[in-house]
Design a protein that fits this description.
mainly alpha; 2 strands; Rhopdopsin 7-helix transmembrane proteins; 370 residues
Length: 370
């Protein structure tokens, strides 16, 4: 009777359902197609990067150590974040590793937090290292020795591990009876949810994982570019006495830094901005919520590109990395006497460089986005 008396309401409801289904299908198919592409490109690229960075071109240097650590952390970020979401969309969220048991719930949330924070802080250390190489080249070898870089990186990682260990206290697997649902779910404990603790943790995590790295890399890149363009005659003369070619070698490694930093700034900036204002975006109707879902999936893809494209950027920006990759792939680093009969192999010495030492069911609202 009501449908006859109010045909407009029926028409509007039908349009809402149609639009909801339309945007939901787009987000679903987009995730199923794009997520695995980003995942496999990232994992394969990070593995290749790690292998190349163990070659004699980078072995024993702070740069090689930091970039190797970055490859491992980016892979961790893809495994804990993107892979889980891809499987979730494939199974229509009938399977979620976080909901298996208490251990899986807490460890996965912990690694998710740790992975998306440790990677930017490794880039911060890489930025600081390059700034020292540009501004104080005569002390760079002493300040950024491999031992000191390893110690500083380990201290930063320990601090992050300790800070995020609170996950083991505030997150737990809630039973289906308590949630009045069909399955157990990984949730924040009720006494820690809400503005008093959860929102505060979200903002602190945003500052650690996005705001501080974003500002540091943006400022650091500008200072590095300014210094290189200025071309201080004093720096050139001092490094020339060390019998190295500063501009060529500094630009080679600095180009790698600038490329990965620019990727980080472009991929994480929109994500951080969106999740900072998402509470103020309209989401009253099913259509509005479906549109926000599509935007979220798109921005998540952009975010995970930050962990997937470093290998391609290294190949495009650094000739030295391409030479190291060719050396690894072609097996040019052969021991003396291991050459084939009748074939003379001239091993090329390493190029000297400055400082070379020979959606739905997540825990916290912020974790939901990762």
């Amino acid at each position: 009777m009501s449908s006859v008396e109010n045909p407009t309401l029926t028409t509007e409801a039908t349009e809402e359902d149609t639009m909801l289904q339309y945007y939901s299908n787009i987000a679903h198919h987009f995730a199923i197609v794009v997520f695995p592409l980003v995942f496999f490109v990232g994992v394969i690229g990070n593995v290749l990067s790690f292998i190349v960075l163990q070659s004699r071109y980078y072995r024993g240097t702070g740069t090689g150590f930091l970039l190797s650590a970055l490859a491992v952390l980016d892979t961790l970020n893809l495994l804990t974040g993107l892979l889980r979401r891809w499987i979730g969309y494939i199974t229509d969220w009938q399977y979620d590793v976080r909901h298996l048991n208490q251990i899986a719930c807490q460890i996965h949330v912990y690694l998710t937090y740790l992975g998306h924070s440790a990677s930017p802080w490794t880039l911060i250390l890489f930025t600081v290292e390059r700034m020292l190489a540009v501004y104080v080249p005569f002390r760079f070898r002493q300040l950024c020795s491999l031992k000191r870089v390893c110690v500083v990186w380990c201290v930063v990682m320990v601090c992050l591990c300790v800070f995020y260990s609170q996950v083991f206290v505030i997150v737990s697997l809630a039973s289906s009876e308590d949630l009045e649902s069909d399955t157990d779910r990984c949730e924040i404990l009720p006494r820690y949810s809400g503005e008093r603790y959860e929102d505060t943790l979200d903002w602190i995590d945003s500052v650690i994982a996005f705001f501080i790295p974003w500002i540091t890399m943006a400022v650091g890149n500008c200072l590095i570019v300014y210094r290189l363009r200025r071309g201080s005659s004093k720096r050139l003369s001092v490094v020339a006495n060390c019998k190295v070619r500063p501009r060529k070698q500094q630009r080679a490694v600095t180009a790698m830094l600038l490329s990965v930093n620019v990727l980080f700034l472009l991929s994480t900036g929109p994500v951080f901005l969106y999740f900072s204002i998402d509470a103020f975006l309209p989401s009253n109707t099913p259509t509005q919520r479906a549109r926000l879902l599509l935007v979220t999936v798109t921005l998540l893809t952009l975010y995970y590109l930050n962990s997937s494209l470093n290998f391609l950027l290294y190949c495009l920006s650094a000739r030295r990395f391409r030479e190291a990759m060719a050396s690894v792939l072609c097996r040019l680093e052969m021991a003396p006497g291991a050459t084939k009969p009748g074939v003379a192999v001239i091993s090329r010495p390493p190029v000297p460089s400055i400082g070379t030492q020979q959606e739905p069911e997540n825990t916290a609202r912020y974790v939901t986005r990762l």
